[in-house]
Amino acid sequence: MIILASTFSQSISHILSADQAFSLTKFLVMFLLIFIETAGIITGFIPGDTILTSVGSVAGLHHNLWELFADGVIFGVASLCGDAVNYWFGGFLTQQIGKIPVLKKYLDGGLIDRLAVDFHPKRWLLFVVLGRFLPFIRVAVPLLAHRLGLPFVTYLKMAAFASFLWAFTITAFGYFIGHLAIPHSALIIGLIGLVILLLVGLRSPKLRQAVINLFVRK
């Protein structure tokens, strides 16, 4: 994942900084990457946060707030569409777990099952919003929502809030970095460091349990 994050970031910066003008093709590629990250169920390895930060930094280099706004809207919509597809398509796949060993290994017996045991119904918004900001976990959120019977319309409203909050927050962070002309290599190192810390943290039983405790009945 670390190698992918670095490669994606460099490729995106190269594509978007080739000229100053908007390109429908460029934004379509970025839209599809963010959409597939969540909608693809097992494509959570796509570094969505790195993509948004890189694109936001390009807008910062251009000193163009309209470009930043367009980034936030495009990626917010892409994220929301991915969540909607994951909710239905993921629900279908989880029903086929017993028939597909690969999916069973990937989806069964993990965080979803542990949260599903005693999930607090008043913590849905917190779960959806926080999950959107966490790589890999954001893929599990629509699955759990479908599995626990959260109405699609209710979930979609929460997902819309989370998606646009995530998109504008991360791209704005990238814009700030690009606006200050921070070297791209420093950005890559910083993002890789955050990814490593996150992955190490998620492997800690105490941290995982602390996260679970946020969303279950006491």
From TrEMBL:
InterPro entries: DedA-like, VTT_dom
Annotated ranges, domain VTT: 46-175
Keywords carried by this UniProt record: Cell membrane, Membrane, Transmembrane, Transmembrane helix
Topology of the protein relative to the lipid bilayer: Multi-pass membrane protein
Transmembrane segments: 27-47, 68-89, 152-176, 182-202
Coiled coil location: none
Localization per record: Cell membrane
Family: Belongs to the DedA family.
Protein name: DedA family protein
Lineage, broadest ranks: Bacteria, Bacillati, Bacillota, Bacilli, Lactobacillales
